[in-house]
Amino acid sequence: MRSAAVAAIGAGATAAVIVAALVQAASDTPVGKALGLSVSVPSQYRRLIEDAGKTCPEVTPNLLAALLKTESEFDPEARSPVGARGIAQFMPSTWESSGIDGNGDGKRNVLDPEDAIPSAAKYLCEMAEETKDVPGDRQSNMLAAYNAGSESVRKHGGVPPYKETQGYVRTINALASTPTAGTGSTAEQIAAAINAADRQIGMPYSWGGGDADGPSTGGCCSPNGSSGASIKGFDCSGLVVYAYAQAGISLPRTAADQYAASVPVSRDEMAPGDLVFFGSSPQGIHHVGIYVGSGYMIEAPRPGLNVRYSPITSMGDFYAAARPIPHQNKEI
After folding, report:
1. In the beta sheet, which residues pair with residue 35?
2. Relative to the CA of 20, which of 7, 172, 189, 278 has its CA 20 to 30 Å away?
């Protein structure tokens, strides 16, 4: 079913009508809900952590992120002096009994985050079950068991009196309980960004063109050799920077950096104002558009074309959708 906004677009309605519909659509979706983690997580691991953080009720994405940061600072190649390995710092014997093939490639690789992160969540759940009858805080007991073993937690009736384990539990609990900054834009900000992009419909594509102040001449050269040096307009990420700047939100200049500065959402969760990215990997993202609902985006497509509304299916290499994390412009 097409949204009111897209129906308005198809009928040639004014930007004001489109934006009014988008404000209502934004109000009916969880755009304003904070989806981010209070722990700073490398973008390539966010989705893994969000998914694995739902393994059991005792484990949350934020708790899992805090554990991985404490264990390895998200280093998949980390090795400890006592033999623990990988992003979740599994000892060989623990990995042998609890490691899983998280990505279904037929291998259990402790150095592969796609295996190690869901394995860490599974092991936390096992520790929660094995210490569920121990007195005291269940989360602290679970974390202590991850560090020192469930037998030690049961023996001591709670977090063992080991300096390392007690510090470990305090650190992770503190990280996991840090309030999450709001990462969703308000409906008014979404409307302002989409309205700003809509005002640029028909503006020429310019490789390297566009910034927070509006269209500009670009530079040389695009992958196919096109130059924007003599064209005033926008490239794809320049349009995004400009549109969100009009909503008081500062975003990085390149599409890949914009993805890294945003919170991934599933295609089912996409809402107006989210960004849609195209490419083969976080580093290989080559295009970005602003999602407006019902499968449509506003984009600065490529050399020779103008800013326009397009179906997101108009490009065959959709990579991900992500929700920009607002960093307010100081002057607004």
Report:
1. none
2. 278
Exposed/middle/buried for 133, CB within 10 Å: 0-12, 13-18, 19+? exposed
Both 254 and 316 in one domain: the answer is yes
Q: How far apart are CA 96 and CA 114, in angstroms?
A: 16
Q: Which of 144, 176, 208 is the last residue of a domain?
A: 176
Residue 164's identity, in one-letter code, is E
156 is catalytic: no
Other beta carbons within 10 Å of 257: 14
Q: Which of these is catalytic: 58, 287, 327, 331? A: 287
CATH code of the domain in which 246 resides: 3.90.1720.10
Q: For the segment 256-277, what is each residue's pLDDT rounded down to a tens digit?
A: 988 888 888 888 888 889 999 9
Of the candidates 50, 58, 71, 299, the residue annotated as catalytic is 299
Residue numbers of the domain that contains 143: 43-176
Q: DSSP state, 279?
A: S
Identified catalytic residue from 56, 236, 327, 331:
236
Active site residue 56: no
Same domain, residue pair 212 and 320: yes
Contacts made by residues 149-156, CB under 8 angstroms, sequence distance 24+? 154/130
Please give the tally of structural domains in the chain. 2
Q: What are the φ and ψ backbone dihedral angles of 176, each rounded to 5 degrees?
A: -70, -25
CATH code, domain carrying 139: 1.10.530.10
Q: CA 328, CA 317: separation in Å to the nearest integer?
A: 31
Per-residue pLDDT reduced to its tens digit, 265-310: 888 888 889 999 999 988 889 999 999 888 899 999 999 999 999 9
236 assigned to active site: yes
- Cα–Cα distance for residue pair 74/113, rounded to 1 Å: 9
Q: How many other CB atoms sit within 10 Å of the CB of residue 3? A: 18
* pTM higher than 0.70: no
